[in-house]
Here is the input.
Amino acid sequence: MAAIWAGASAPTTPRRTRRPTIAGVAGGVGTTTVATAIGGIDNGVFTGGPADILVCRASGDSLIRAGKAAQLIAADRHPRPLLIVTATDKAGPCRPVATRLRLLEPHTRALLVAPYVRRWTQLSVPLDEVAGLLDRPLTELPRVLRRYALAMRELCAALTHPVVIPTAPPPRGSSATPTRERKPPSCAL
Here is the structure.
C-alpha cells in the first residue's frame, strides 16, 4: 500500500453519522467503485460544492483537476477533501506522479493511492464484487482484491479521524510496509 495515516483518536462526543460524499474529477476515474466499496454517496463528476472524498487517476491531467477541485472545496469554507488516486496499472504511481501528489497535500486532508485491480476489467459487473469488500475478512477475499480492500478500510479509518496527516506514496519500486488485518471500520462521518 502506498499511504501512511496518522491522526488523533476518534472524538469522545457522540455525533450524527452520515454517509460520505464522493466526487470524481472526470468520468471513469473510479468514483462509483469507491462509493460502492465504502457505502458512500456517488456524486458523479465534481461540479462544485462540498465532497468528503475526491477521486482521480494517477495521471498529470487528472491530478491537476483534483488540485483545482480541492481548492474550490476549501475556498467555499468546506473541510478539505480526502483524495483517492486510482492507479492506472499494477506498478502504481511513477516518480513524477508521486512528486505531483506531494504538491496536492496542502489542499487535501489526506492522500491514498488505490491499487489497480486488473480482474475488474474482465468481469461484466465488477461492482457486484466491490460491494461486499468491507463486509468480509481479508483472508476470505481472493488475493488480488486484498490490497484494494485494505485501501478502502484505511480510507474509512481516515474519514473517522478528526485530524489526518497526509503523506504521499513512495515512487514505483518501493516496498510497502506490511499491515495486519483489522476489523472493518465503519465508513460513516
Q: What stands out?
A: The longest strand covers residues 41-45.
